[in-house]
Amino acid sequence: MADALHIGPEVTDALASGTPVVALESTIFSELGLPEPANRQCFRRVQAAVRAAGAVPALCGVLDGRAIVGANFAEAERLFGGSVKVGARDLGPAVAGRLAVGVTTVSATVTLAAAAGIEVFATGGIGGVHRGAGLSGDVSNDLEAMARHRVVVVSSGVKAFLDVSLTFERLETLGVAVLGWRTDRFPAFYVRDGGPELSSTVNDGHEVAAAFRAAAALGHPSGILVANPIPVDAELDRDAVAEAVADAEAAARREGVSGGDITPVVLTALTEVTGGEVVPANIALAESNATVAAEIADALARHSAGPGAVS
Ligand code: PSU
Ligand code: MN
């Protein structure tokens, strides 16, 4: 099915000429991730940040039964209005069933990035181990996808309402390295340093590129998670976030949602209970991650692939 994947012309040219490319998911830019019009604003800021750092953004999604890597303006507009969430396992059925509009999560986007030959991906927060996963078994496929594909994922930690410690442990189990971007603590999304201590800190894109190329040269099959804390001036109050998350989760429980529906419902409730305070924080961290990802993509473009890169 040669038609299953469509790589946009700008991204095709960039990949051919060695210009850095940063893959972007579409779920966060749909109403499943951010309310209108913040979703579009967030995308504009993220893609401008990627371009300002000299890289080409590659927005991913599913349109008319094709996986798109590098949506053009009209395609992006359709994705922003999408409401069908597509994870990695949904890609095959979405294409075969000619799904009209599907927004891709981290797991699906990392899969598409790898298929297209893109090595860096930026998002806000990844999915992970939900609280109470011991009973519900709810663990995002995002973690497994990072273990399976050699892609650098830049995020500000995991979604605010997950179990950060269990997610961190799972990343270790799966063999995904976590590098702290100028930090030695795993960031807690809206808060800079709520999480576990990290064993590796990186200070620039070249340090990430060196670790990524070395892991590949040694045959390690997994990606790397770069954990970039939310910018200082956008950080929210830790206790207020904890309280808002508890309220939002209670609201989701009352609605009786489960599985993949939990994230959008809790995110919507979180926006409501904080009076919209989480929205600018979300945009600021996504923009910062885009800048960091573009710097890493630039460094990777200079560190040639293959064993020769390690000496
Ligand atoms: N984090 C956010 N907002 C989001 C998501 C994560 O702050 O919208 C999305 C991402 O697309 C992520 C997905 O990949 O949620 C994970 O969903 P699940 O837990 O159902 O795997
Ligand atoms: Mn889930």
The CATH architecture is 3-Layer(aba) Sandwich
Output the CATH topology. Answer: Indigoidine synthase fold
Q: pLDDT below 50 for ≥5 consecutive residues: which ranges?
A: none
Query: What is the number of helices?
Result: 12
The total strand number stands at: 11
Roughly how many Å is the radius of gyration? Answer: 18 Å
Highest CATH level, the class: Alpha Beta
State mean pLDDT (0 to 100 scale).
94
Using the alpha-carbon principal axes, give the shape: globular
Q: How do the SSEs run, as a string of H and E?
A: EHEHEEHEHEHEHHEHEEHEHHH
Beta percentage is 5-15%
CATH homologous superfamily (4th level) name = Indigoidine synthase domain
Ligands bound, unique: pseudouridine-5'-monophosphate, manganese (II) ion
Structural class label: alpha/beta
* Largest sheet composition: 11 strands, mixed
User: What percent of the residues sit in helical stretches (DSSP H or I)?
Assistant: 40-55%
Q: What is the CA-CA span between the terminal residues?
A: 40 Å
- What is the number of independent domains? 1
